[in-house]
Design brief:
Layout: H1 6-9, H2 14-19, H3 43-51, E1 54-56, H4 57-63, H5 68-76, E2 92-94, H6 95-102, H7 109-114, E3 117-118, H8 120-127, H9 131-139, E4 147-150, E5 156-161, H10 162-171, H11 182-189, H12 195-209, H13 214-222, H14 227-233, H15 237-246, H16 258-268, H17 273-293, H18 303-330
Antiparallel strand pairs: 1-2, 3-5, 4-5
Length: 331
């Protein structure tokens, strides 16, 4: 897969153009919720908000003056808490959570500033360095992307949190000027690129912090393994199916295009032997905790099927006893 940064993807200013539209993964079609026409919106999304203590994600984004990508990033970063989705439903947001953010100082600009992202060109201008140096820092793992989008050529363009860039500049000003340190030159000379791995690690950590359910946590770790590796760790096909069912997804559902979904799946999978081993070990440990908490659903788990299965086993035992008696007689 073609891998690139904003320096390849667009002319100067492209990073800022997409910064407000970036989602946690990909944001191919963004809309400004402050300009949504309620008459053209799913009426159930608005009707349900009056009856309960939670609202749909789209309505919450509108009330917080956040675009779709900004809202998802706020959830991903832990700035906003969401209510776990019911079976077959989408996550919702409590009215108290919306009121908490709306009552904060500097609303709504303060929230939007915390999720402001930028590509290489804009990030380099923020730090006062060249785009080439910015890319070298990112490839060496000094700064970690928080999101990405696909450009018109379906190449990946990484995006970075403005707050994290400023924090890096304050903590390591020596890396912004002068010659790069020897370890960085060696790393880059070997063709190392830490952007994808660091993005994946941070994403997994943030997803794990969003849930206490052991099966959902195991599902997050399972996403980092390809089907072959996953089957070796989780040999029960029903457990694998359950992990797929409970794995957390984007607030607004999966990306719309096939290319976007395939890109997310590809980037989430570990591709280095030591990382694969680390993910396998962690998944095995989390899976043990999940199994202790509750078994994964299997056909025949309900009481009626258990009783039927017990009856069948009883019949088989009786038949086996008859066969044993017949063998004793024959002897």
């Amino acid at each position: 897969m073609a891998m690139t940064d904003a320096t390849r993807a667009a002319a100067p200013g492209a990073g800022s153009r997409h910064a407000q539209n970036a989602s946690t993964d990909i944001d191919p079609t963004d809309i400004d919720p402050t300009k949504v026409d309620p008459s053209k919106t799913d009426p159930t999304e608005f009707d349900r908000t009056e009856a309960g203590a939670t609202v749909a994600a789209g309505r919450a984004a509108q009330e917080l003056n956040l675009k779709r990508g900004e809202f998802e990033l706020a959830v991903h970063l832990g700035i906003m808490r969401i209510v776990a989705a019911e079976a077959g439903g989408r996550p919702r947001v409590s009215r108290e959570e919306i009121d908490r953010l709306r009552s904060g100082d500097g609303f709504p600009d303060a929230v939007r500033e915390r999720v402001r992202t930028m590509g290489t060109a804009e990030g380099a201008r923020l730090l006062g360095i060249s785009p080439v140096r910015f890319t070298r820092l990112a490839r060496a793992g000094c700064i970690t992307p928080v999101a990405f989008y696909l450009n018109r050529y379906r190449a990946i363009v990484w995006l970075y949190l403005a707050d994290e860039l400023l924090g890096f500049a304050a903590g390591a000003p020596q890396l912004l000027t002068g010659n790069s340190p020897a370890w960085m030159r060696t790393c880059l000379g070997a063709g190392t690129d830490w952007r994808t791995r660091n993005w994946r690690s941070h994403r997994i950590e943030r997803l794990l912090r969003r849930t206490e359910d052991p099966w959902a946590r195991a599902a997050v770790l399972a996403c980092a393994l390809d089907p072959v590796q996953l089957a070796e760790v989780v040999d029960d096909p029903y457990e694998r199916a359950y992990l797929k069912k409970v794995q957390p997804g984007p607030v607004f559902g999966p990306p719309g295009s096939i290319a976007a979904r395939d890109t997310v799946t590809h980037l989430m999978r570990a591709d280095d032997p030591d990382e694969i081993l680390w993910r396998r070990v962690n998944l095995a440990l989390e899976l043990d905790s999940a199994r202790e908490a509750r078994p994964a659903p299997h056909p025949g788990n309900d009481r009626r099927n258990v009783e039927v299965n017990a009856s069948v086993l009883g019949q088989r035992a009786a038949a086996m006893g008859t066969v044993c008696q017949a063998l004793d007689v024959a002897e």
